[in-house]
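Q: Please design a sequence for this.
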């Protein structure tokens, strides 16, 4: 309804209140486009953003969210601390000699977890479209054979976070 053709139909009705709302809607869309282009321009100034955008599925906006949530990568002495911060590690229950691993802890940054999972999904779409396999897509497809797709996506997001950690630590681009 709100694509170009639908908006033209609504304008053709010549209802003043509908036209008023459509004008507001179109000006909001224009403002969003301007803000997105400004955000891309500003985001490309950072070397870390440029590095992260070399990963298929991560754009400037996603890279900026990831960087804003992680902050300075040197504050994490090892990658496991970053996984714990993102809440993508399994919970552990121990009783005596038995150890049980459960669902991810979900402690930490929910925004980082969300954007990582979305980036994995976009990465998988990109690899399927270009018929390319990466470490992340291979890992995901291997897990999908024995786990539900959502569980595999979460595990692949941890793998993506591992790659991001090493890219930022070593200031190196994505190699697949």
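A: Design:
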């Amino acid at each position: 309804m709100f694509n170009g053709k639908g908006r033209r139909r609504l304008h053709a009705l010549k209802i003043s209140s509908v036209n008023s709302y459509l004008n507001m809607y179109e000006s909001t869309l224009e403002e969003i486009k301007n803000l997105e282009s400004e955000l891309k321009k500003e985001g490309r100034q950072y070397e870390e953003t440029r590095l992260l955008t070399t990963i298929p599925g991560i754009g400037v906006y996603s890279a900026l969210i990831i960087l804003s949530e992680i902050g300075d990568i040197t504050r994490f002495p090892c990658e496991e601390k970053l996984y714990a911060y993102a809440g993508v590690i399994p919970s552990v229950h121990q009783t005596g000699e038995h150890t049980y691993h459960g669902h991810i802890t979900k402690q930490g940054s929910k925004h980082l977890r969300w954007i990582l999972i979305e980036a994995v999904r976009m990465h998988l779409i990109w690899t399927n479209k270009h018929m390319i396999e990466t470490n992340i897509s291979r890992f995901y497809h291997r897990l999908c054979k024995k786990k539900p797709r959502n569980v595999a996506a979460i595990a692949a997001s941890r793998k993506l976070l591992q790659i991001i950690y090493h890219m930022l630590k070593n200031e190196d681009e994505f190699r697949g």
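Q: Thanks. Anything notable?
A: The chain has two domains: 1-43, 47-170. The chain has a mean pLDDT of 91.
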